[in-house]
């Protein structure tokens, strides 16, 4: 992976503008690896139920007026960034050898 954005695109969680008229919003890219996207979705759903920082984030974004779908989209992108940070050192070590 070249960057976090490239990994997000591979996972299908990069934002795509979906604005119309006065609204300014994004949707998820429908491309990418569907199995990876599905795994991210499952992890986010479990975190929304049991992970206290995620529960707090969902509550805060809900009060800001975001829908559950939009919150899940954001959480999937954050999770993809976390995973990329975990696998990044391993990718560099593999490319050196």
Task: Determine the strand fraction and express it as a percent band.
Answer: 5-15%
Mean pLDDT rating: 84
Give the low-pLDDT segments: none
Q: Largest beta sheet, briefly? A: 2 strands, antiparallel
**What is the SS-derived class?**
mainly alpha
Tally of contiguous helical segments: 4
Principal-axes geometry comes out as: globular
Distance between the termini: 16 Å
Tell me the Rg in angstroms.
15 Å
Order of helices and strands: HEEHHH
Report helical residue fraction: 55-70%
Count of DSSP strands? 2
Strand order of the biggest β-sheet: 1-2
Outline the structure in words:
The protein contains four helices and two strands. The chain is mainly α and 97 residues long. The chain has a two-stranded antiparallel ribbon. Helix 1 (4-11) packs across helix 4 and helix 2 (34-50) packs across helix 3 (52-63). The mean pLDDT is 84.
């Amino acid at each position: 992976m070249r960057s976090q954005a490239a990994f997000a695109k591979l996972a299908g969680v990069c934002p795509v503008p979906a604005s119309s008229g006065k609204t300014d919003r994004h949707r998820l890219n429908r491309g990418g690896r569907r199995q990876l996207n599905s795994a991210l979705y499952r992890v986010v759903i479990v975190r929304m139920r049991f992970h206290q920082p995620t529960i707090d984030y969902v509550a805060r974004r809900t009060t800001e007026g975001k829908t559950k779908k939009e919150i899940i989209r954001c959480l999937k992108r954050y999770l993809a960034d976390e995973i990329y940070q975990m696998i990044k050192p391993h990718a560099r070590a593999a490319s050196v050898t």
